[in-house]
Amino acid sequence: MIGRLLLNRLADLALVLFSVSVIVFFMIRFIPGDAVAIMLGANTEVTPERIAEMRARLGLDLPIVQQYAQWAGKALRGDFGTSLWTGRPVLDEIAVHVWPTVQLTVLSLVIGAVLAVPAGVLMARLRGQAADAAMRVVTVAGLTIPSFWLGIVMILVVATVAPGLQALGYVPFSQDPLGNIGRLLLPALALGLPILANLSRLVRSAMLDALSQDYIRTARAKGVSERKVLYKHALRNALIPFVTSVGIMTGYLLGGAIVVEQVFAIPGLGRLILGAIAERNYPLLQATILVVTSGFVFVNFAVDLLYLAIDPRVRA
Amino acid sequence: MARVSLRSTLLAGAFALCVAPASAQVLEAAIDQSPAGLDPHIITAFASFMVVNGTIYEGLTAIDKDLRVQPGIAESWTVAPDGKTYTFKLRSGATFHNGAPVEAADVVSSLKRVLSKDIASPLASRLAAVDTINAPDASTVELKLKEPAAPLLTSLATLAIVPRGFEADKDSLQKQPVGTGPFKFKDWQPNGFIQLARHEGYWKKGAPKLEGVKFNIVPESATRQVGVSSGQYAMLPNIDAATALQLKGKPNVKLAETLELAYSLVGMNVSRPPFDNAKVREALNTAINRDEIVAAALFGAGVPGGPLSPALKDWAVDVKEFPCYKSDPAKAQELLKAAGVQTPVAVTMIVLPRQDIKDIAQVVQQQLNKAGFKVELKTPELGQFIQDWRNSNFDLFASTNAGSPDPDDYFYRTFRTGGSTNVFKYSNPEVDTLLDRARATTDTAARKADYAKVQKTLACEGPIAHLTYGQLFTALRSNVQGFEIIANRSLSSLADVSVLK
C-alpha cells in the first residue's frame, strides 16, 4: 500500500519537476533585461563588444532551447551549475539557505500547529461560554495581523525592553546552538501565531462538527468518559482537515517566508529566491525552485501517509 | 490566558538564550543588500564596492575624503613631460593577505587582468588610453599611454591590485578575495553577513585598529534602525536622508555626513522630438525648481546641482551661473512657444524603481505640468528600465548616477559624440573639442577652464537636467572613533576606526 503510494508520488514528482523547470526557465527569460544587463546596471560604461563577451562568458548567447537542453542534461546528472554572480556551486548556496528555512518552518509549526490542537479542543469544549468568545476574538486578531507587522513590533519591543539582546540575524546551530534558537524564536512567533490562530479555529469547528455526530451520542450513551469521547472519538475525525491544512502550510513555509526573513534578516530560501529573480541568476533560481517544489511534493506524501494512520477507511 | 503565559515564557527563554557576549573590537555594520560577488574587477553593484573598495582592496592610488588623489600601493610616481609615460614606485612593506609581498609583477598582472577578454571587466575602459604595462624592476611599474590621459591617476584608485596568477581566473576572487587592504576576507554567508578580519601585515603602521568588520545584510530599513539604536549594530554606512533623519537625536547614535558625488537627473532623448530641440531642453530646465525638489523629496538634506557635484570644489561651477536654474514656469512656456512645439508637450518619463527617485520624479512631473508639459510617469521593473535606457527607448528618464572624482570620467562617456553611455545621442562639436582637449592635457588650470565652459553649455541645453546632490550619511554608535565619511562611498577610513569600551 505504502509502496504503491510512494511510486505514484515519485511519478508525480518527476512530472511536476519537469513542468516547473520548463516554466521557470522560460518565464524568467521573458522578463526584460538579462543577467548581464542587471549586472552592469544603468549608466555603466561598457561597449557592446564587452556586453557580448560577458554574455558569452555566462553562456547566455546560445539559443534559449539549446540553453535549456544543456541545463537539463547537466541537471539530470546532478550538476546544477554555479551562481552567475558569485561563481559558487548552486547547491552550496541552497544548502546554506535551506537550514534557516527548515528550522523556521519546524519552530513555527511547533508553535502554530502543536498548540492549535489543545487550543481548538478547549474552545470546542467551552463552546458558548465567555472564554470561548474571548478566545475567538483573539484568534480573529491573530488571523488579521500580518506577520511582518507582528515581527517589527516584536523587534521594537525587545529592543526597548532588553537592548543588549541580539535578536537579529542568524547564526548556524553548529556554531552557537543557544544563539541560533534564541534568534529564531521571535521570527517563529511572528510566523507561528497567525498559524495558531488559523488552525485552532479550524480544530474548533471540526471538533464541533464531530461532536454533533450520532456516534458521539452513542459513545456517551455507552458511558464512555468525556475525555475519551473528546480525544479518541471526536478529535480523530477532526484531524483530517487539520492535517490537510498543516500540510499546505508546511509547503508554503518551506518555500521561504520572504517578509519575515527580510524583517529579521534571516538568510532563508525566500530571500534566496527573491534575490535570484532580481539578479536574473538563472541557474540558482531554477535549482532553488526545484528544491522547494520537491519539498512541497514530499510534504504532500507525508500528509497522505498521515491520512492512512488517522483514518482506517483510507486504507481500504 | 494560557497563550499569554506561553508567550512570556518563550520570550523569557529568548532573553536568557541570546544575551550577547561582548565581542572584542569587531565592528558590526548593517547594509541593506547582499554583495553579488567580491571580485574587484567584475563587480558593479554599490553593495559590493562598499564592502571591498579600500577595505579589502587598494589601488596604486587612493582618493581621500576631499576627493583628491593620494598615494596608495604606489608610494610615489612621476609623469613624463609629454604626459604619455607614468612611472610608479611601489611602497616597500606592502603585502597581500596571503603573505606575499606586493611586487611590480602583481601590479602588471592586475592591470592586464582588467583588460583581459576572459575577465570581460566593465572597468576595462578606464585603461583605454594605456598602450603598454611594464615592470622594469620589482618595485617599479611603467605605463606607456597612446595619448595623454589626465584622469588616469583617479581611475587607478578604482583598479584593485590583486596577486599575480588570476589573469585568466574569473571565479576565485568572486568568492575568496585576496588584496592588500587593511582587512582580509574571513567568511561570507550569502544573505547573512560578510566578515573581514585584521590584515596583520598591513603597510600602514598601527592600522587597522579593529579586530575585524562584520557586514550584516539586513534588508529591512526598520530593522537596521532598531539594530543601531539598540547597539546591536555599530554602523549603518552610506544611508539616505530619510533613514538618517529618523536616527537623528537617538541616544548613543551619531551621524557623519557629507555631500554626495551621486546625483539625481532627468535624461532627455535628443534623437527624437521634442527634446531634439535645444529650446525645449532649456524650457525643461527652466520649469524645474530644484530647491523645491530638495525640500520635498530629500527632506532638505541636499543641494541643487549642476553637471558636477559641488563636492568637487576644484571643478564645479556655481549653479548661480546657470541662467536656466532660476525656476520660471512662465518663461518656460515662452521658450516652448519660441521652439514652435505644440503645447502641452506630451512626453513619457521612465523612472528608476527606487524610492528616492520616484519621489523626485513626482515633484518634477508636477513642476513640468505647470509649465506647458504633460508628463506621464512609468516605473518599470529594473531590468526593463535598464533595457530601455541602453536602447535609448525613452523621451525622458529619471535616475541617479554615481559621480566620479575626475570630470573626464563622467563627461567624456556621457556627452562626447558616440560616448559609451551617451544614450541621449547628444552631439555637440564644440563640447567634443573641449572634452578631447581637456583629457589630453595635465595642465590643471587649462582643464578647469575647459570644463567650466562644458558645464555652462550643458547646464541648460545639454541632454541631462541635473537636479540635486543629496547629503550622504553614515550612522555610528557614539563610541565609534576615527571614521571619515567619503563622498564616493568608500569605507577606506575603517582602517583608522576604533571602538571605545
From TrEMBL, chain A:
Residues 98-307 form the ABC transmembrane type-1 domain. Gene3D superfamilies: MetI-like (1.10.3720.10). The chain crosses the membrane at residues 12-31, 106-126, 138-161, 181-199, 238-264, 284-310. It is a multi-pass membrane protein. InterPro entries: BPD_transp_1_N, MetI-like, MetI-like_sf. CDD domains: TM_PBP2. Its main location: membrane. Belongs to the binding-protein-dependent transport system permease family. This is ABC transporter permease. It comes from Alsobacter ponti.
From TrEMBL, chain B:
Keywords: Signal. It is found in: Periplasm. Coiled coil: none annotated. The keyword Acetylation does not apply. Residues 69-419 form the Solute-binding protein family domain. It comes from the Bacteria. Residues 1-24 form the signal peptide. PANTHER family: D,D-DIPEPTIDE-BINDING PERIPLASMIC PROTEIN DDPA-RELATED, PERIPLASMIC BINDING COMPONENT OF ABC TRANSPORTER. Belongs to the bacterial solute-binding protein 5 family. This is ABC transporter substrate-binding protein. It comes from Alsobacter ponti.
